[in-house]
Write a structure and sequence with these properties.
The chain is α+β, with helices and mostly antiparallel strands. Helix content is 30%, strand content 17%. The protein contains 5 helices and 4 strands. Helix 1 crosses helix 3 and helix 2 packs across helix 3.
């Protein structure tokens, strides 16, 4: 069930999503709302899971992890004699445990999983695929796509405000 969010909730989310270091006082000032209201709304959105966590976005290039790859993986759902069945979800969870893996998605189409990886180099990506990924039980085959250049990479979710009346919520700069 989708949580009920009002215009102030959406305004708060928009602000803290772009800068979670804003204080409640700064958010309150920007959306013209009492600080106690902002605190209560943020706490509620944390409790219902709309706000999952707060994190710093790091520069992978400056941390020697500037090589990005997307890997498509195909899952074999059982062994040849069908003695062991493999769960696509369990395999995805196993792959998600590797620290160099940023994302694992179960997808439709010719492939079963889409994996996003950050590493030091193309060589490190190759070693990950050969020495770690391909030995995960249930992985049948992989296709690695190296990223040449990233034009956009974000964690932000577009937040559209609902206009219930002609009066719009004004956010102050």
């Amino acid at each position: 069930m989708e949580p009920k969010l009002d215009e102030k909730d959406l305004a708060i989310l928009s602000l803290i999503q772009s800068n979670c270091r804003l204080t409640a006082r700064e958010v309150a000032r920007k959306i013209d709302s009492p600080i106690t209201t902002v605190f209560a709304k943020i706490k509620r959105m944390e409790e219902i899971g709309v706000i999952k966590e707060y994190k710093a976005i790091l520069d992978s290039q400056k941390l020697n992890k500037g090589t990005t790859a997307f890997i498509l993986a195909s899952v074999s759902y059982g062994t040849k004699n069908n003695a062991t069945l493999f769960s696509q979800r369990d395999i995805a969870k196993e792959i998600a445990k590797f620290p160099e893996v940023q994302e694992v998605h179960i997808v439709t189409g010719d492939w079963d999983l889409l994996i996003k990886l950050k590493a030091e180099s193309v060589d490190a990506v190759g070693k990950f695929v050969i020495d770690k990924l391909r030995i995960v039980k249930g992985i049948e085959k992989t296709l690695t796509c190296m990223v040449f250049e990233t034009c956009k990479e974000t964690t932000e979710i577009p937040i559209e405000t609902r206009q219930k009346s002609s009066k719009s919520l004004v956010m102050r700069k």
